[in-house]
C-alpha cells in the first residue's frame, strides 16, 4: 500500500515538474495577440467550460477542446499553452482545491496537449500524407490531434486511478469511458464545423461571431455539468432513503448494521469509515472499514471522543486529525467526526475519511449529520426494545414465581401436612392414614404435572430456534396428527424481520386458537394465514365450527387463570398489536392479530463545527 502511494507521489511530482517546465519555456515565447477582444472572449469561454467540468466519480472531464483548438489555430502553441495553464490554475484555485492539485492538474493537461501536438506532427510527417486541399489537410490534422489528446490525457488519468488505494468500480470505469467518448465526439463535430465555416467566405469575423458560435458549447457544458451533478445527488438521496428503509426493516435484528453497510458507504462516498457505539452498557466497534489492522479501541480513545458533541471536520490530517488520526492510513488526509447523541449524551461516533485535503463540504457534513441522527435514533429504539423485552422476561419470571407459590408450593405443603398427619395416625387408624396418603399422592401428581408444565414453559420458544413460519408449520402439522380437524397453513407477502416478542405473540395466539378450536369449536376445517403487508403482519385463524358468544367467552375468561381471550388481548396490547375476534353461534369464528412493523423515529439534527 505504501509502495503504491510512493509511486503515485513520484509520478505526480515528475509530471508536475515537466508541465510547469514546459509552461515556463512557452512563457518566454508567447506573443500577446493584437485582437485582444476575440482572444479574451475565447479565454473566458474556456475558463467557464473548465470550471463546469463533468464529474465522473472521483475525476472529471470537460468539453473545452474546441475552444482550445481554436486558440491553437489562431494564436499558436506558446500563447495557447500560457493562457490554458493560467485558466486551469485560476479554476482550481476558485474551486478551493489543495495546492498539489492546483499544481498537478494544469501541468498534466499542458503535457497532454503538447505531446498530442508532437504526436500529430510526427504521424503526419512520417506517413508523408498528401492532401487535395487545405480543408482536407485540416480534417486529418484535427482527427489525429483529437485522438492523440484524448488517448494521452486518459492514459495519464488512468495511471493515477489504477494505482490509487481506493479503486474505481466497474460502473465508474464504464461511465468514465462513455462520457469521455461522448465528449470526444462532441468536440470533433464542433471542430469540424469550425473548420468548414472557416473555409467559407463570410467576411470579417468579429468577437460577436465567436461568442455566437461557442455559446451553444458553453450552454451544453453548463447543462451537462448540472445534470450529472443532479444525478449524483439523486443517487445519494436514494442511498439515504435505502439506509432509512433498511434501518426500519432490520433495526430489531442483530445483523442490522451489516444490512445497511452497502447503502451507507454508497451514501457517505468516503474512503474509510469507523463506527462505534454504546451497546448493552459497553462501547463496541460496529464498522471498521479501511483502518490500520493493528488498531484497537481502548478506553483512552473512548474518553477522547466522548467530549466531541458536534460534527468536527479536520481538513488536513498532517496538521491535526483528532483522536483517531493514527488509526487511519497515511493516505487519508481529511477526517470528519460525527457524534451519535441521545438526549444530549454521546452514545457513539461515526468517523469517516477521504484521501484529499479539504474534501468535505458543508453539504457533506449535513448529510453525515442526517445519517448519525438516524443511527442514534436506531440505537435508542433498540435500547427501548431490549428494556421492554427484559421487562417482559421479568414479568414472566414473576408470573412463574406466583404460579409456583400459589399452586405447586401450596399443593406440596398440603401433601406434606397430610403425610405428617398420616404418620401420626398410622398406628391408631390405618384406614384414615391410607386415605390421607392417597389424597397426598393425588396432590403430588398434580404438582408434578404443573412442574413439568413450568419446565416446558421455560424452554426456548420454537420461534427462537426455527423461526416463525417453521414454528407455525410444525404446530399445524402436529395438530393435524393429534386431531381429525383439517388445518391448512398459508403465508403471503414478502417476509421481513420481526422482534422476538412479536414472533412469540403470533405463535402463542395461533397455538391457543387451535387449542380452543380443538376443545370447543367442533370444526372440521381450519385455515391459518400469515400475511406480510407493507406496514404490518396479519395472523388470521378461521374455523367452520359452531362459533360462540364473545360476551359469554369474556365472562368465562375472567375466571380462567390460563391463557385465554383476556390474556391474548393483554399480551397483544403490550406488543402494540391489535386482536380482533369475530364469531357468531353456528357461523364459525375468526381471530385476527395485527402486529405493526417495527419503525424507528427520527432524531434531531446536529450542528456542525469546522476545524481546519
TrEMBL record:
Enzyme class: transferase
Keyword list, A-Z: Kinase, Membrane, Transferase, Transmembrane, Transmembrane helix, Two-component regulatory system
Stretches assigned to the GAF domain: 330-379
Segments forming domain Signal transduction histidine kinase subgroup 3 dimerisation and phosphoacceptor: 396-460
InterPro entries in alphabetical order: GAF, GAF-like_dom_sf, HATPase_C_sf, HATPase_dom, Sensor_HK_TwoCompSys, Sig_transdc_His_kin_sub3_dim/P
Annotated ranges, domain Histidine kinase/HSP90-like ATPase: 503-597
UniProt superkingdom: Bacteria
Catalyzed reactions per annotation: ATP + protein L-histidine = ADP + protein N-phospho-L-histidine
Record's protein name: histidine kinase
PANTHER family registered for this protein in UniProt: NITRATE/NITRITE SENSOR PROTEIN NARX-RELATED, SENSORY TRANSDUCTION HISTIDINE KINASE
Gene Ontology MF terms in the entry: phosphorelay sensor kinase activity; protein dimerization activity
EC number(s) from the headed UniProt entry: 2.7.13.3
Pfam families linked to this entry: GAF, HATPase_c, HisKA_3
CC per GO annotation: membrane
Segments crossing the lipid bilayer: 12-30, 36-54, 66-95, 107-127, 139-157, 177-198, 210-228
Keyword S-adenosyl-L-methionine: no
Amino acid at each position: 500500500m505504501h509502495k503504491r502511494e510512493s509511486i503515485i507521489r513520484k509520478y505526480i511530482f515528475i509530471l508536475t515538474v515537466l508541465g510547469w517546465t514546459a509552461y515556463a519555456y512557452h512563457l518566454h515565447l508567447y506573443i500577446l495577440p493584437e485582437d485582444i477582444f476575440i482572444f479574451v472572449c475565447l479565454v473566458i469561454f474556456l475558463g467557464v467550460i473548465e470550471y463546469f467540468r463533468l464529474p465522473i466519480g472521483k475525476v472529471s472531464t470537460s468539453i473545452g477542446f474546441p475552444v482550445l483548438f481554436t486558440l491553437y489555430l489562431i494564436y499558436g502553441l506558446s500563447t495557447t499553452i500560457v493562457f490554458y495553464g493560467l485558466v486551469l490554475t485560476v479554476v482550481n484555485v476558485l474551486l478551493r482545491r489543495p495546492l498539489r492539485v492546483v499544481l498537478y492538474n494544469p501541468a498534466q493537461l499542458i503535457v497532454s496537449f503538447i505531446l498530442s501536438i508532437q504526436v500529430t506532427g510526427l504521424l503526419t510527417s512520417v506517413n508523408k500524407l498528401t492532401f487535395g486541399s487545405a480543408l482536407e489537410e485540416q480534417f486529418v490534422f484535427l482527427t489525429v490531434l483529437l485522438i492523440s489528446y484524448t488517448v494521452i490525457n486518459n492514459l495519464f488519468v488512468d495511471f493515477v486511478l489504477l494505482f490509487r488505494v481506493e479503486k474505481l468500480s466497474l460502473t465508474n470505469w464504464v461511465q468514465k469511458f462513455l462520457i469521455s467518448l461522448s465528449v470526444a465526439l462532441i468536440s470533433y463535430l464542433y471542430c469540424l464545423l469550425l473548420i468548414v465555416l472557416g473555409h467559407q467566405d463570410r467576411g470579417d469575423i468579429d468577437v460577436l461571431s465567436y461568442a455566437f458560435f461557442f455559446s451553444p458549447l458553453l450552454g451544453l457544458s453548463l447543462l451537462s455539468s448540472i445534470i450529472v451533478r443532479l444525478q449524483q445527488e439523486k443517487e445519494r438521496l436514494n442511498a439515504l432513503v435505502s439506509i432509512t428503509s433498511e434501518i426500519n426493516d432490520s433495526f430489531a435484528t442483530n445483523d442490522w448494521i451489516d444490512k445497511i453497510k452497502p447503502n451507507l458507504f454508497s451514501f457517505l462516498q468516503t474512503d474509510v469509515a469507523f463506527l462505534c457505539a454504546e451497546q448493552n452498557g459497553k462501547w463496541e466497534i460496529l464498522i471498521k472499514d479501511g483502518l490500520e489492522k493493528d488498531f484497537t479501541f481502548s478506553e483512552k480513545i473512548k474518553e477522547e471522543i466522548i467530549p466531541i458533541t458536534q460534527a468536527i471536520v479536520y481538513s488536513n490530517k498532517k496538521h491535526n486529525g483528532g483522536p483517531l488520526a493514527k488509526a487511519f492510513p497515511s493516505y487519508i488526509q481529511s477526517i470528519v467526526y460525527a457524534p451519535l447523541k441521545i438526549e444530549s449524551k454521546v452514545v457513539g461516533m461515526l468517523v469517516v475519511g477521504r484521501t484529499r485535503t479539504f474534501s468535505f463540504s458543508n453539504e457533506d457534513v449535513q448529510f453525515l449529520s442526517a445519517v448519525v441522527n438516524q443511527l442514534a435514533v436506531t440505537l435508542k429504539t433498540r435500547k427501548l426494545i431490549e428494556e421492554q423485552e427484559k421487562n417482559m422476561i421479568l414479568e414472566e419470571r414473576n408470573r412463574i414465581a406466583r404460579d409456583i407459590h400459589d399452586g405447586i408450593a401450596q399443593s406440596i405443603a398440603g401433601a406434606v401436612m397430610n403425610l405428617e398427619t398420616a404418620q401420626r395416625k398410622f398406628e391408631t387408624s390405618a384406614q384414615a392414614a391410607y386415605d390421607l396418603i392417597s389424597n397426598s399422592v393425588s396432590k403430588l401428581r398434580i404438582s408434578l404435572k404443573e412442574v413439568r408444565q413450568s419446565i416446558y414453559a421455560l424452554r426456548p420458544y420454537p420461534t427462537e430456534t426455527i423461526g416463525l413460519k417453521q414454528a407455525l408449520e410444525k404446530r399445524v402439522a402436529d395438530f393435524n396428527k393429534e386431531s381429525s380437524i383439517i388445518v391448512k397453513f398459508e403465508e403471503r407477502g414478502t417476509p421481513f424481520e420481526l422482534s422476538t416478542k412479536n414472533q412469540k405473540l403470533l405463535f402463542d395466539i395461533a397455538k391457543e386458537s387451535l387449542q380452543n378450536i380443538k376443545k370447543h369449536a367442533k370444526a372440521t376445517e381450519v385455515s391459518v394465514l400469515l400475511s406480510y403487508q407493507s406496514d404490518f403482519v396479519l395472523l388470521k385463524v378461521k374455523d367452520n365450527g359452531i362459533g360462540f358468544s364473545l360476551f359469554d367467552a369474556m365472562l368465562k375468561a375472567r375466571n380462567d387463570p390460563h391463557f385465554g381471550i383476556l390474556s391474548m388481548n393483554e399480551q397483544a396490547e403490550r406488543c402494540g398489536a391489535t386482536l380482533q375476534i369475530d364469531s357468531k353461534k353456528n357461523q364459525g369464528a375468526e381471530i385476527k392479530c395485527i402486529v405493526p412493523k417495527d419503525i424507528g423515529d427520527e432524531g434531531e439534527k446536529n450542528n456542525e463545527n469546522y476545524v481546519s
